[in-house]
Every structure is written in C-alpha cells, then in structure tokens.
C-alpha cells in the first residue's frame, strides 16, 4: 500500500490496525491449538472416534438373541476349494455358538465368549479350550475376523476423513487379542464398513476383510457378505455369506462348554 | 463288502420316514493291520510266535438320537467284526435325559468326560479309559458308564451329582465347573465303593495369543492297580505256585497332569507330563521281568508261562502305562484335505518310546482314509523295548454320515 494511502487509511480507521494485529494473533493461537489437537488427541476427539466405531459396528452386529446360517466358501486361485455351512447362534455382542452342518467338519461345534474359545470335535464328548492362534487355522479363523467387535475390543483414531471414505486406525485393548491393529475403511457419510485390514502382534498384515453386501434386518442394514483375503497367501480367499436370519431366544446353557456335547445340530 | 454294507444301511436310513426329532448318525471304521512282533521281547522267547500278524477290523457305530420337547434319548450300539468273521456287539451309550429349566436328569449308559488333559484325565473318574493312540476316541470304540446324573447349568457354571457303577453302584461323585475371568476351573469329590473320600482339581486357561495351559490332579485313597508279590522279594528265582495279586496298603496316591497347547506357524503342539504314584518303580519292573524270564526258562510249557506273563496287563489293569512318569507330545498340521499328526509317548524312567504317525486324507464330507504306523522302541528291559509288538501299520477308512 503506498505510504500516502496508508496514512489516509490509518486516520480513517485508527483501530483497524489493532484489529488486524489482534486478528492475526488470534489466528496464530488457533493454529497452535489446532496443531496441538493433532498431536494430543483430546477426549472429545476420541469420543467421536468411539461413536464412529459404534456406528460401524451397527452394520456388523445385531442386538438380542438370533440365529443365522453361515456359508463359508474357500477359494484358491479363483476356484472353489471347499465349502462349509454353519448354524450360528448369537447372544449379545460377544457370545456365539457355531455348529458345522455341512462340510469336512460336519458336527463340529465352536463356542466363543469374549476372548475365550472352545471346540467340540465331531464324535468327541467334551469341549476343548483352544488358543486364539488356533482361531487362525481353518474356518474358525475367518469366523473370528467376522465376529470381532471393533467398538468393544479396540480403541480407534480417525486417520483420514475424506469426502467418501473414512479411515481409522484401531488398536487392541487386550494384549491377548489375536489382531493387535486394524485399519478400518468406511463410508464417510453412512459409516458403512467397506474394508478392514487385520494385523498380528508381529506387525504382519494377516487378513483383509471386504464388506460386500448388506441387507435390511428389522429396519436396519447389516452386512451379509464378507470376502476375506489371506495376505500371507494371496491366492487364497474366503467368502462368508449369512442367510436365514431368525430372532431366537437361546438358553444360556448353550454357551456353557460343559453342555456342548449335548447340543444337536440344530437348536 | 464294506461298501455294500454301508450302501444298504444308508438306503435303509433314507427310506425310513423319521419320527419327529429322530436323527441317525452312522460311523464306520474299517482298518487293516500289520503287526510286527518283537523277536527280542521277553514275552516272545526264542521267537516262539510268528514275526507278523495280520488283522482286519470293521467297526460300525450307529448313533440314534431322539428329541421331543424336554426329553432327549440316545442309543449307540457298536458292532465289530474281525478278519475271521467273528462279530461282537456292545452298547456304547443308551441314556435318557429330561430337561427342566437349568436342570437335567440323565439315566442309563453314557460317556461323561471331565478334565482338561489330552493324554489322560486324572479327574475323569466316570470317563472311560483313554487310549494313547486315540485320546479323543475318534474311532468311537469306548463304552460309557452306567449312571444316574443330575446336572445344573448356567452360562458359566455346571454342577453335577452322579451315582455310577464300577464293581457295584456304590460310587458317588460331585462335580463343579466354573468359567471365571478367562479361566476354566473344575473340582470333584468322589466317594467310591471302598468308602474313602477322594478329591481332585483342574484348571485351564490361555496365555497370550498362542498358548493354552492346563493342569489337573486327583488324590486317590486306594491304588487303582494290584501288586505282584515279587516286588517284595529281592530274589527273582522265588516262584509262586499261584501268584495272587495283592491290594497295596490304603494311603494317598496322587495322580496329576500338566500340559500346554501351543500353536507355532500353523502347527499345533500339545505337550503333557503325567505322573501317578502307583506305577512300577524301575526296580520293581526289573524284578518282575526277572521273575518271568527265570520262570520261562524253567517251564516245560513256555506258552502257558507266557499266558501267566501276560498278567502284566492285569497289573496294568488298563491304567495308563506301567511306570510312574510319562511325557506325551502330539503335533498336528492340516493341509487342504490332508491332516498330519504324530504322537510320542515316553516312559521317563527308561526313555522307551511309543511313536505313532497318522496321515489322514479327507475324500469328501465324512469320508477319510488314513495310514497309521506305530512303533515301540527302547532298550532291553524297558517298558516299550520289551513290548510284545515292535510296531504295527494300520490302513483304514472312516465314514461318518
């Protein structure tokens, strides 16, 4: 601004300079605050992340007791390798009972409660406790991927929120969790889950789940088809499809490992 | 012949119009066995017996289940047939269960499994005895016990009271299970027919992501096996016209097991240490073998002496090996349709070993083929080194429908 014009401006607007300087100082402070917020997530920021996780889990979990049929198809190099069907019985967000009704392990029962898991093999008269790593073997592994409750088992941080896609980094609350870290991708507006990348304690990227199809159940959308890629062996992937949803009251004893051998193939 | 029988049975099942809640499962196992006799064994002096034996066995187990409202019924007959066509049948299970809320009442013959161990289960006093080569009874060869049982179940607790038959019906057991903060706890009180209270505990839990640990122990008040009088005699040349096995003095006989289940790079490994107080000490086994060896050489009829020597099995009475301390290891890996597993069972006193390998190929749902070589190895005088068989090879087919 030419000096003559500046002098005229200052005479007419004596407080403007002060306002300008004041405004610049406020902006600087705001910038500091914004940067600090970025370095030290405030409780408010985490709470938003938790709320987002709840919304994402809403597409993956159904409340109350219910039953589902689950078809698991294993593919190798795009060819169907093996198929199995399970009857699944679910109570709350952390209790599930899976009974293999068709496939190589027909009759096998898998009970999951939180981080605890037991298997009752076909023909055996007792349930055996198995390790979280054993969940990674065979079809129980993919069941574990499908059942993971993000909001309950993980603490989330929003890494990126674009126009279409939201990206979150989840860290396991429990050291015993099979997957210590998850990168979760969801629709930025609806929070519909799109993809989840699961990492082991060692840091290895173990599996990626793609949430492919959704159906409306009792007025809300829920994921019904998941594709799980094995990142250790890229030729392998599994497709899990849920169908035949029924609201069903399940007696609590069905989630007791001692009762497992008494359970028939259907409740 | 096997396939014909199975085809006929399956046709019968398909044609039958099932009553409400009635289901059948059929399990068949056909195996062909080559057994190689141990030419150096104490029990086969001078290779008295042929070097190999061949045997085939067909086992058919039909399991019928019927559910109607709060009643469950189970009938499970087992028929076996050997290579000479001799058949034998028995009832594995035949029980009725009535449910009422959290309670269940069971009467009849049933297989009840308590405990955490894979190789053995010290607290499994109602459980039928395990075989090291088939701990989970996948061949469905074991028979249940006759019992009356009351169960109470919640989501995390199971309480049981059971009256069951061994030599008589005077056996009572109280059992409790609880799942608390990631731990499985088991407790048992047992009042057997010889009227001395026994008790046991078991626990199982997972540590981190890859390890499961379990332990169980039982305090018995009477030795489960009888003793040979030669244990009391230093000189094996002492003979007994009619050696009576004797009941050792009542006291405390502990039996316990500790183990872990570990998964490493897709290989599942179970390792367990087992101890019992009534097993033969090394010096006793030496005296016993000395006694039989001495009398074999003196006997005019080695075969009859061999029959007497086979009373070693009476000593063992099917109870978990001859000695006191064992190590068990099982490794298992699954590839597509193939499962590979191996079992090692070692006598820690003499380092003799039972080794079993199994390759199982799953052809389709419920049909699998398997090959199972088994070996006994050990130095002269050791438990497995003196085993009558040095090994066997079993080929089989399992069908579950």
List the helices and strands and how they pair.
The complex is a heterodimer of chains A (267) and B (401).
Chain A: H1 3-12, H2 14-39, H3 43-60, E1 66-76, E2 79-91, E3 95-102, E4 109-113, E5 116-120, E6 128-129, H4 139-147, H5 150-153, E7 154-161, E8 165-172, E9 181-187, E10 193-199, E11 205-217, E12 220-230, E13 236-247
Helix pairs in contact in A: 1-2
Chain B: H1 2-15, E1 22-37, E2 52-68, E3 71-82, E4 87-100, E5 103-110, E6 145-153, E7 157-164, E8 171-180, E9 183-191, E10 198-207, E11 211-220, E12 253-264, E13 267-276, H2 282-298, H3 302-309, H4 312-316, E14 325-335, E15 338-347, E16 353-364, E17 367-377, E18 389-400
Antiparallel strand pairs in B: 1-2, 1-18, 2-3, 3-4, 4-5, 5-6, 6-7, 7-8, 8-9, 9-10, 10-11, 11-12, 12-13, 13-14, 14-15, 15-16, 16-17, 17-18
Helix pairs in contact in B: 2-3
Could you walk me through the main structural features you see in this protein, from its secondary elements to its overall organization?
The complex is a heterodimer of chains A (267) and B (401). A 13-stranded antiparallel beta sheet of chain A has the order 6-5-4-3-2-1-13-12-11-10-9-8-7. Chain A is globular. Chain A has two domains: 3-40; 45-262, Lipoprotein localisation LolA/LolB/LppX (outer membrane lipoprotein receptor (LolB), chain A, Clam), CATH 2.50.20. In chain A, helix 1 crosses helix 2. Chain A contains five helices and 13 strands. Chain A has helices spanning 3-12, 14-39, 43-60, 139-147, 150-153, and strands spanning 66-76, 79-91, 95-102, 109-113, 116-120, 128-129, 154-161, 165-172, 181-187, 193-199, 205-217, 220-230, 236-247. Chain A is α+β, with helices and mostly antiparallel strands. Mean pLDDT of chain A is 77; it is low at 16-47. The longest helix of chain A has 26 residues, at 14-39. Chain B is globular and about 65 Å long. Helix content of chain B is 11%, strand content 50%. The longest helix of chain B has 17 residues, at 282-298. Chain B is built from four helices and 18 strands. Chain B is mainly beta and 401 residues long. Chain B has a single domain (24-400), classed as Beta Barrel (Porin). The chains are: A alpha+beta (267), B mainly beta (401). The interface between A and B is large, with 44 and 51 residues.
């Amino acid at each position: 601004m030419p000096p003559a014009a500046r002098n005229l401006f200052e005479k007419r607007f004596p407080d403007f300079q002060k306002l300008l300087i004041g405004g610049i100082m406020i902006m600087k402070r705001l910038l500091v605050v914004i940067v600090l917020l970025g370095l030290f997530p405030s409780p408010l920021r985490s709470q938003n992340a938790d709320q987002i996780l709840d919304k994402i889990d809403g597409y993956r979990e159904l409340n109350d007791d219910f039953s589902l049929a689950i078809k698991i198809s294993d593919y190798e190099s795009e060819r169907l390798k093996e198929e199995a069907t399970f009857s699944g019985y679910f109570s709350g967000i952390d209790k599930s009972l899976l009974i293999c009704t068709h496939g190589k392990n027909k009759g096998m029962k898998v009970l999951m409660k939180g981080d605890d898991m037991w298997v009752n093999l076909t023909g055996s008269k007792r349930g055996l406790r198995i390790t979280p790593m054993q969940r990674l073997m065979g079809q129980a592994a993919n069941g574990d991927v499908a059942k993971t409750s993000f909001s309950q088992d993980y603490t989330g941080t929003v890494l990126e929120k674009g126009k279409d896609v939201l990206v979150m980094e989840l860290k396991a609350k429990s050291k015993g969790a099979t997957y210590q870290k998850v990168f979760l991708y969801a629709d930025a507006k609806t929070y519909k889950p799109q993809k989840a990348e699961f990492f082991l304690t060692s840091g290895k990227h173990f599996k990626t789940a793609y949430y492919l199809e959704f159906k409306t159940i009792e007025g809300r959308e829920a994921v019904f088809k998941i594709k799980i890629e094995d990142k250790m062996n890229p030729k392998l992937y599994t497709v899990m499809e849920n169908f035949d949803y029924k609201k069903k009251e399940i007696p609590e004893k069905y989630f007791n490992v001692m009762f497992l051998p008494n359970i028939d193939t259907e409740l | 012949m096997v396939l014909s029988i199975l085809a006929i049975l399956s046709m019968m099942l398909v044609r039958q119009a099932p009553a409400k809640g009635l289901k059948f499962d059929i399990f068949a196992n056909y195996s062909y066995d080559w057994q190689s006799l141990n030419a150096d064994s104490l029990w086969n002096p001078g290779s008295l017996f042929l070097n190999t034996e061949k045997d085939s066995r067909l086992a058919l187990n039909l399991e019928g289940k019927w559910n109607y409202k709060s009643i469950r019924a189970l009938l499970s007959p087992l028929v076996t047939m050997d290579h000479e066509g001799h058949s034998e049948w028995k009832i594995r299970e035949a029980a009725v269960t009535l449910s009422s809320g959290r309670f269940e009442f069971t009467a009849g013959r049933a297989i009840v499994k308590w405990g955490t161990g894979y190789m053995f289960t010290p607290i499994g006093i109602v459980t039928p005895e395990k075989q090291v080569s088939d701990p989970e009874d996948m061949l469905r060869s074991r028979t249940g016990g006759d019992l009356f049982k009351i169960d109470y179940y919640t989501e995390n607790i199971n309480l049981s009271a059971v009256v069951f038959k061994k030599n008589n019906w005077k056996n009572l057991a109280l059992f409790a299970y609880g799942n608390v903060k990631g731990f499985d706890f088991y407790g048992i009180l047992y009042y057997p027919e010889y009227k001395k209270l026994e008790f046991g505990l078991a626990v199982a839990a997972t540590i981190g992501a890859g390890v499961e640990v379990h332990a169980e122990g039982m305090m018995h008040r009477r030795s489960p096996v009888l003793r040979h009088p030669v244990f009391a005699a230093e000189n094996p040349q002492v003979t007994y016209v009619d050696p009576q096995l004797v009941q050792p003095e009542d006291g405390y006989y502990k039996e316990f097991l500790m183990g872990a289940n570990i998964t490493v790079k897709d290989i599942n490994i179970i390792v367990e240490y087992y101890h019992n107080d009534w097993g033969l000490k090394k010096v006793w086994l030496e005296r016993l073998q000395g006694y039989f060896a001495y009398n074999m050489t003196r006997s005019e009829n080695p075969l009859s002496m061999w029959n007497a020597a086979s009373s070693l099995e009476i000593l063992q009475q099917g109870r978990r090996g001859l000695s006191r301390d064992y190590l068990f290891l099982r490794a298992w890996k699954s590839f597509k349709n193939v499962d590979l597993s191996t079992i090692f069972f070692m006598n820690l006193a003499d380092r003799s070993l039972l080794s079993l390998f199994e390759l199982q190929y799953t052809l389709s749902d419920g049909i699998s083929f398997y090959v199972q070589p088994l070996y006994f190895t050990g130095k002269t005088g050791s438990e497995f080194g003196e085993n009558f068989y040095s090994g066997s090879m079993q080929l089989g087919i399992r069908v579950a429908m």
